[in-house]
Amino acid sequence: MKKAMTDIGNRLREVREYLNLTQQFVSKQSGIPRTAISAIESGKRKVDSIELAKLAKLYNYPVSYFLGESDTSQDETFAKLYRAAGNLDENDRQELVRFAEFLRHSGRQKQSSQELEK
Q1: Do the Cβ atoms of 75 and 62 come closer than 8 Å?
Q2: Residues 80, 34 share a domain
Q3: pTM above 0.70, yes or no
Q4: Triad 54, 6, 36: Cα angle to 5°
Q5: Is the pLDDT at 95 greater than 80, yes or no?
Q6: Could you tell me what percent of the chain has a pLDDT over 90?
Q7: If you count Cβ atoms within 10 Å of the first and of the last residue's Cβ in the chain, which end, N or C, has fewer?
């Protein structure tokens, strides 16, 4: 049980730091005391389900990521793209969509070419 608490706490800390958020900011936004966030992240305190749901929503990550229950590589990629796109103006977001479509189609063409060569 201690390892699970530490693993969840580590994931919460890593995501918070990746997002460049302070414990104080997270405390204000979530209503969870900063000292509790510190204790959770260090594995000294359990996180309850309501707290975990609040933190997951604030961080824009699925709860399952913090529980270590899912392969989140795709979820993480989408979350990173979403956060990056949020800082762009409308024209740049449209350009990002066009680029994603280009990559999707060029990937299919590569795959089709490789299959034809076989």
Answers
A1: yes
A2: no
A3: no
A4: 45
A5: yes
A6: 46
A7: C
Please give the distance of CA 64 from its chain centroid, rounded to a whole number. 11
Q: Does 21 share its domain with 63?
A: yes
Is the same domain home to 77 and 107? yes
CATH code, domain with 61: 1.10.260.40
Contact partners, residue 13, CB within 8 Å, separation at least 6:
41
Rg (CA), the chain: 19
- Give the span between the Cα atoms of 114 and 116, in whole angstroms: 5
Same domain flag for 56 and 108? no
Q: Tell me: do 6 and 63 sit in the same domain.
A: yes
Beta carbons of 54 and 31 less than 8 angstroms apart = yes
- In this predicted model, what pLDDT tens digit does every residue of 36-66 receive, in sequence order? 999 999 999 999 999 999 999 999 888 988 9
> Tokens 């990629």 label which residue?
77
d(CA 81, CA 77): 6
Do 34 and 60 fall within a single domain?
yes
Name the residue with higher pLDDT: 25 or 105.
Answer: 25
Amino acid at residue number 65: Y
Structural domain range at position 13: 2-67
